[in-house]
Amino acid sequence: MSIDESTAARVAKLARIKVDPEALPALAQDFNGILGFIEQLSEVDVEGVEPMTSVTPQRLTRRADEVTDGDLQDDVLKNAPDAREGFFAVPKVVE
């Protein structure tokens, strides 16, 4: 697949990037280089290779799933302009 100047201009417009018309040939060439690299990657045989999350094997540290700051309902609701029955009260917007 090859990217021409009109396609590069369209991609720039879709990405909302202002590109001068004289810079379009270089942009199209850069896009073609990127696509060439992607084609090289698709030629690599990855059968049997497990996906990695990092270049170094490591496990993510996990914390215990515990509530540490609960029971603050009164503190949270005291700044509300209108609170009823332990909840925020808001005006009705649908008839």
Automatic annotation (TrEMBL):
Q: Which keywords does this Swiss-Prot/TrEMBL entry list?
A: ATP-binding, Ligase, Nucleotide-binding, Protein biosynthesis
Write down the chemical reaction(s) this protein catalyses: L-aspartyl-tRNA(Asn) + L-glutamine + ATP + H2O = L-asparaginyl-tRNA(Asn) + L-glutamate + ADP + phosphate + 2 H(+); L-glutamyl-tRNA(Gln) + L-glutamine + ATP + H2O = L-glutaminyl-tRNA(Gln) + L-glutamate + ADP + phosphate + H(+)
InterPro entries according to UniProt: Asp/Glu-ADT_sf_sub_c, GatC
**Domain of life of the source:** Bacteria
Keyword ATP-binding attached: yes
Q: Which Pfam families match?
A: GatC
UniProt subunit comment = Heterotrimer of A, B and C subunits.
Cited function: Allows the formation of correctly charged Asn-tRNA(Asn) or Gln-tRNA(Gln) through the transamidation of misacylated Asp-tRNA(Asn) or Glu-tRNA(Gln) in organisms which lack either or both of asparaginyl-tRNA or glutaminyl-tRNA synthetases. The reaction takes place in the presence of glutamine and ATP through an activated phospho-Asp-tRNA(Asn) or phospho-Glu-tRNA(Gln).
Q: What is this protein called?
A: Aspartyl/glutamyl-tRNA(Asn/Gln) amidotransferase subunit C
